[in-house]
Amino acid sequence: MLNIIYCEILKLKKSYIIPVAVIGGMFMSILFELTSLVFKESMQTFEQYSSNLEIPNIVVLYTILFSLIAGFVFSREFTDRTSSVIYTYPISRIKIFIGKLITIDMLISLVYLVKVISIYFSYYILNHMLPESTFTMNYLKYNIYSLIAQFLIIPIPILVTNMSKNLILPVIYGIVGTVVTMIASGKMFQINDYVPLVAPYKFIMKTYIPNLIDLNHSVLSGIVCFIISMIICIYQYNKDDIV
Amino acid sequence: MFNIIYSEFVKLKKSYILIVALFSGCVISGTIFITDMLRQRNELVSLTERVSFLEGRIVDIDRMSALFIYNIIFSLIAAYIFSREHTDKTANTLYAYSAGRMKIFFGKFITTCALIVFVYLIQVLTTYLSLYIEWGVLPSAKFISADIKVNICSILLQFLLMPIPILIANITRNIIVPIVYGLLGDVMVGLLLGAGANIYSQFCPLTLPILPFYHYHKGDPIDIVIVSGSAIITFSVFMLLCMYHYSKVDID
Amino acid sequence: MGYILKTYNLTKNFKSFLAVKDLNMNIKQGDIYGFLGENGAGKTTTIRMIMGLIKATSGEIELFSEKASKQNRNLLQRIGSMIEYPGFYPNLTAGENLEIHRRMMGMQDKNCIMESLKIAGIQDVKNKKVKEFSLGMKQRLGIARAILHHPEFLILDEPTNGLDPSGIKEIRELILDLCHTQGITFLISSHILSEIQQMATKIGIIHEGKLLEEIEYDELQKRNRHYINIKVNDDKKASFILEQKLNISDYVIWEKNNLRVYENLEKASEINKILVSNDLRIDELCVKADSLEDYFLRLTGNVKSVKS
Fold it and tell me: Among partner residues A27, A56, A79, which is closest to B190 by beta-carbon distance?
């Protein structure tokens, strides 16, 4: 299994996807930093600053970015015509699938890591101070939960990619997911709590409005979504003819 | 030239891109339609209330589509049309034709613009249709004509931005980087225009297609000099770069 | 010597299209099996089924005397393959592409990469990115990848595609060398019949999804018919004379003014005398044997003749 993951990471070397992940993680921080410097905004608390960054990241950027990453890792075997090689190794397709899934999860973790570091770094540059450790612990804790929630919903764009064998449909899924997240992150319907795509957002928001956010439904919907989408993914991956 | 454009359209036949264009025109209006149906708004009874609400809804749908969807979708469309020759390995054939590279470039550019018009058309039609189905009324003729004018302005401004993702697609020869450009552009525009069309957001060329919605429907002031300058400079610079790169690059 | 590959009524149906029907293939250890067929005959589909890339609609595959199935994926460790156009990760170097293959095949010895590049003749480009390779170099890299893990059975789909004449000769010599020194069994699909003719020990001819013939090459050579090849200035007059004056019916007009007579081979001089005495000009008259191409064309029903 280690060999499979090593090979998947080696394949990403000198591809666009790692710079895309890094830029995706720090883009908002840089943008906010620049607008704060231009508009000479008065000092915000770290809570205000980070929430202003987290919300557009989670709601607008991440669904499409992670669909793009998942789409790239799976569809490249077809676009580079290496599928006739990779699926003839003496390794089961499920192992290859899990190896690719772990690689995608590592890239998503990289985005979150870059995001957290860039938020702290940009806040320090603007205000020359860091937040309290109690808030930092809470912030990191809910970011990790949000990251895990992302892992739970990533099989959906993987399934879309495997069925379409290209990058376009996962991006379309990302756009749909973004629209759904934007609507469901509002408080219009009761059903919002059950939409798995909102789970990462809710975990992040628990940092800022802990009393108003109930995570039970998000956890449940995330787990159910993961189980169902993984079963369908693995079934489809095993059965599909590689032509 | 006509043959080149016809060939470009034939290449799109049975590709995903037409479905993508159709879908992206309907996504916002469809989503708003479904959420409104689920919310069962019963409080708007009088005709004037409904018409007024409808007009607000149409402006919101137009604005949200332009803010969140169009940058990514149009970057995807432009990148697909230009980079597919490399991914499908048909570049050796296409650029060996007697038609010059510039003609081929403009043929593809026109095809991209045609798809953009198609997306806007679908979006306007589905918006009005879905709102009519839901509320049973249409806004006033004056509003409809103003909305169409605003959308036409926005379309023309989208055309001016297209050389950017085209240049990115030609240099990188794939669709990933143009999509990332579209995505980051969307985020940037969303932040810049979050509080309305202020003077600083008008400097950024990516906000150009959305400014007409803010100016005509919300009454935000627009500095014509800044906007025109931004539009002309962006288009000239990127179009020249595109044309230069397209004519000089080796096809391997 | 046991069988490396046996298929039993292998069939593949793609919705409305029957790609392969009741294919019974037998490849013994040490064979160089030439798998011949026109474009779209079903060669690549068959190879894909053997490698487990696509699932057969019906039938069985036996590899190394064991039934091939998803549970038996370790059998693939003993097989090397190059199917259709070899695909690589363009952003990686040749060495890095082979490193991925080495790890996925579970090979511990890192030196095997350089060894296989040397055998394929591209050891100088180990650190060059694959996107800068020519078609021929990619083909060689595909062969290097296929032999990297010292397989017992090599499946090569059009291995000489894109290679120059010296490259084709090198690959042919490599295949013969690997077969004779290391006892590797080969399944080679190709259109270039002359190449297969020079190396195959067994031939399988597939046409429209059906395996028409499977024959040892020695047996094929015995079976290949001898004929008198006659080039004249008027094939119609010549055919009239053959039928009316010499009572010869087993002949074909192979090309314009070129006839092939399959009977009375010992009477070549008499045939010559009678044709000349009837004012026909004889440009060539000699006894020849059917080539593999002739046999293939006859078997697949593509013989171009006015009369057979």
Answer: A56
Residue A167: list chain B partners with CB under 8 A: 175-176, 179
Place of tokens 């597919």: B84
Q: Please state, in angstroms and rounded to a whole number, the distance separating the CA atoms of residues C80 and B102.
A: 46
Structure ipTM: 0.78
Residue span of the structural domain in which C167 resides: 3-222
- Helices B163-172, B176-192: inter-axial angle, 10-degree rounding: 150
Angle at which helices A93-127 and A2-11 pack, to 10 degrees? Answer: 60
Least confident of A11-15, A167-171, A204-208, B198-202: B198-202
Residue A158 contacts residue A174 (beta carbons within 8 Å): no
Nearest C-alpha neighbor of C162 from the set C197, C204, C190, C123: C190
Residue C306 in domain:
no
Residues from chain C that touch A6, judged by Cβ atoms under 8 A, are 103
Domain count across chain A: 1
Binary contact (C100, A91; C-beta < 8 A): no
Pairing between β-strand C79-82 and β-strand C153-157 as defined by DSSP bridges: parallel
**Other residues' Cβ atoms within 10 Å of the Cβ of residue B145:** 10
Residue B6: closest CA among B82, B95, B107, B79: B107
Strand duo C66-67 + C226-232: pairing:
unpaired
Q: Do B113 and B235 contact (CB within 8 A), yes or no? A: no
CA distance A236 to A162: 8
Residue A61: which region, alpha, beta or left (left: phi > 0; alpha: psi -120 to 50)? alpha
Q: Which stretches in chain B have pLDDT values below 50?
A: none
Tell whether C260 and C192 lie within a shared domain. Answer: no
pLDDT at residue B197, rounded to an integer? 61
Residue A239: both structure tokens together: 């059965």
Q: Judged by CB atoms within 8 Å, which residues 110-139 of B form the interface with A?
A: none
Enter the tokens of residue A115.
């995001």
Which residue in chain C has the smallest CA separation from A7?
C100
pTM: 0.81
Q: Is the pLDDT of residue A177 over 60?
A: yes
> Is the pLDDT score of C301 beyond 80?
no
Q: Last residue of some domain: C222, C251, C268?
A: C222
Total CB pairs under 8 A between chain A and B: 84
> Using an 8 Å Cβ cutoff, are A184 and A192 in contact?
yes
Reported as type and span, the H/E element at residue C222 is helix C217-223
User: What is the phi-psi region of residue C24: left when phi exceeds 0, alpha when psi lies from -120 to 50, beta otherwise?
Assistant: beta
Same domain? C131 vs C255: no
Give me the mean pLDDT over the A10-25 stretch: 88
User: Is the domain of C11 the same as that of C97?
Assistant: yes
**Residue A30 Cα to chain centre, angstroms:** 19
From the DSSP assignment, how many helices (H) and strands (E) are in chain C? 10, 15
Put simply, the answer to whether A24 touches B187 (Cβ < 8 Å) is no
The reply to whether C148 falls in a domain is: yes
Is residue C213 situated within a structural domain?
Answer: yes
pLDDT in tens, A44-87: 788 888 888 888 889 888 999 999 999 999 999 988 889 889 99
- Phi and psi torsions of C157, nearest 5°: -100, 105
Residue C306: pLDDT over 70? no
- For residues A215 and A206, the answer to whether their CB atoms sit within 8 Å is yes
Considering chain A, what percentage of its residues have pLDDT values greater than 90? Answer: 34
Q: Where are the alpha helices (DSSP H) in chain B?
A: 2-12, 16-39, 47-64, 70-87, 91-94, 101-135, 141-161, 163-172, 176-192, 211-213, 224-248
Q: What is the CATH number of the domain that holds C259?
A: 3.30.70.980
Rounded to whole angstroms, the Cα distance separating A50 from B95 reads: 50
